[in-house]
Design goal:
The structure holds two protein chains of two kinds.
Chain A: E1 8-9, E2 14-18, E3 21-26, E4 31-35, H1 37-45, H2 52-62, H3 69-82, E5 86-87
Antiparallel strand pairs in A: 1-5, 2-3, 3-4
Chain B: E1 3-9, E2 12-18, H1 21-31, E3 41-50, E4 56-60, E5 63-68, H2 71-89, E6 95-102, E7 107-111, H3 118-127, E8 131-134, E9 137-140, E10 146-148, E11 153-155, H4 159-162, H5 164-172, E12 176-178, E13 183-185, E14 198-206, E15 213-216, H6 219-227, H7 241-250, E16 253-258, H8 261-273
Parallel strand pairs in B: 2-3, 7-14, 14-16
Antiparallel strand pairs in B: 1-2, 3-4, 4-5, 6-7, 6-8, 6-9, 9-10, 11-13, 12-13, 15-16
The chains are: A alpha+beta, B alpha+beta.
Chain lengths: 92, 291
């Protein structure tokens, strides 16, 4: 994963917000994924314009007391990519 | 002239033509706990014939579905046909691979794939006086309401060793069918009327010898896990996602690890008994490390 990648949410997912979590459901694969509040924010930033570096910076600014947040971003993007809900290499 | 039994569930119906007394007795054993079916859309017609108390044939539209030489196997196979018909043709509400157990006041949903131990828990709880609404299929009817599929409890062949007292008692009272492949037990606790509303969703897993451990799930976790149990997802426009999320918003979800059917039944029984009592739930016992 490169810092200049611009992750983008894939189409076709259904979403439901429950408390501060977001549940993604992929009808094509009949798979559901529960995103906690942090992962939901990261997923929301995957707009195809914001780079991975920028997502890390924004999350670091939003959570200044969480020193591991940059790695959390990478981990979350890995999971979202594995779930096929985000395309990391897409560019706009 | 055949006897005709209509089995209704989720607005659908299966018509079962019973060609003789043996077939009639087996059908009453299998479907006797179902309420009289209202006029639903007939989605399947089957013909069941018995050539003696242990030899059955099932026909669907003139084609032989099975020939079984044991009543327990015939019961399981006819149930499989009926469940498949409902799950493949219900387009109105989500049907869950789940058990449901309760008393007159409250019930607990136990989602899980076949082999997860739902039926064993149902048998243990039935013996303790809780009604088994279903050990396999439950309809999500809106709000906290569920539709029961009150078939007999279908246990694995080793059930006679795992639940000796329960199965021996059922055998003596004529509530047990057994073959090399299955044990089919008719519950002893009657269904409450009306059916109780859900007070909890419990994802139970059996780990031999483990002490009972219960912890609360987030609503998102509950919804995501429930989606894996929707039996008729392909028949619903959104795979039932909105209805499942609505259920997860209303009904608290838990994960239960138990090392024996007795421990699991005790934990679930406590949830049912304390439903609605202020401060009773959510609570956690023996939470796993890291939570």
């Amino acid at each position: 994963m490169k810092g200049s990648d611009r992750p983008v949410r894939k189409d076709g997912f259904l979403t439901q917000e429950l408390d501060d979590e977001v549940v993604l459901y992929n009808p094509a694969r009949s798979e559901a994924l529960c995103l906690n509040a942090t992962a939901a924010l990261i997923w929301g930033l995957c707009d195809g314009e914001t780079t991975v570096d920028e997502i890390q910076r924004m999350m670091s600014e939003a959570f200044p007391d969480a020193p591991g947040i940059s790695q959390d971003v990478l981990d979350a993007l890995d999971i979202l990519q594995g779930n096929d809900s985000v395309c990391l290499a897409c560019t706009t | 002239m055949y006897d005709l039994m209509r089995v209704g569930f989720a607005g659908l119906a299966v018509d079962l033509a019973l060609k003789d007394d043996h077939a009639g007795r087996l059908a009453r054993f299998v479907f006797g706990r179902f309420a009289a079916a209202p006029a639903g859309v007939a989605c399947l017609r089957l013909e069941l014939a018995g050539n003696g108390p242990e030899h059955f044939t099932l026909w669907r539209e003139g084609s032989l579905v099975f020939e079984a030489t044991c009543a327990a196997d015939a019961a399981r196979l006819v149930l499989a046909e009926v469940i498949h018909a409902f799950a493949s043709q219900c387009t109105t509400i989500p049907l869950l691979h789940a058990a449901a157990i309760g008393n007159s006041a409250a019930s607990v949903l136990l989602p899980g794939a076949s082999g997860a131990g739902k039926s064993t828990l149902c048998a243990a709880m039935d013996a303790a006086g809780h009604a088994c609404l279903s050990d396999e299929l439950v309809g999500v009817a809106g709000g906290r309401a569920v539709l029961a599929f009150p078939r007999p409890i279908c246990l694995k062949p080793d059930a006679r060793q795992v639940l000796p007292g329960i199965t021996d008692s059922a055998a003596v009272s004529g509530r047990l069918l057994q073959s090399a492949d299955a044990v089919v037990l008719s519950p002893q606790t009657p269904l409450p009327v009306p059916l109780p509303r859900l007070c909890a969703i419990v994802f139970a897993s059996f780990t031999p010898g483990a002490p009972p451990a219960l912890h609360a799930n987030t609503r998102g976790e509950t919804a995501a896990r429930l989606m894996g149990s929707v039996a008729n997802a392909r028949q619903l426009s959104d795979h039932g996602f909105a209805a499942i999320a609505a259920l997860a918003r209303l009904v608290p979800g838990y994960t239960l690890v138990h090392g024996s059917a007795g421990d699991g039944a005790q934990a679930i029984g406590a949830i049912i008994r304390t439903a609605g009592q202020p401060g009773a739930w959510p609570r956690t016992i023996n939470p796993p490390a890291g939570r």
